Amino acid sequence: MVNKTVNNIQDIFLNNARKNRTNLTVHLLNGFQIKGIVKGFDNFTVILECDENMMLIYKHSISTITPEKPIPFINN
Known about the structure:
The protein is 14% helix and 43% strand. Strands 4-3-2-1-5 form a five-stranded antiparallel β-sheet. It has one helix and five strands; from the N terminus they run αβββββ. The longest helix has 11 residues, at 9-19. It has one helix spanning 9-19, and strands at 23-28, 33-41, 45-50, 53-58, 62-67. The chain is mostly beta strands. It has a single domain (9-66), classed as SH3 type barrels (Roll).
């Protein structure tokens, strides 16, 4: 059986935001908004660079991510 790697929309979105260094606003479930650039992510967390600081944000606390400009949805 062939093992295929399948990227989900979330991974494609975050990876393209990271590659393009797109400014994002991360809206948390508690109402806070954090602005920054994605530096990395995994299945459970996102690392955001905000004002030269790094923040580790758990994905389960994120409501919405709004990019400053459109992010291409090409899987590359």
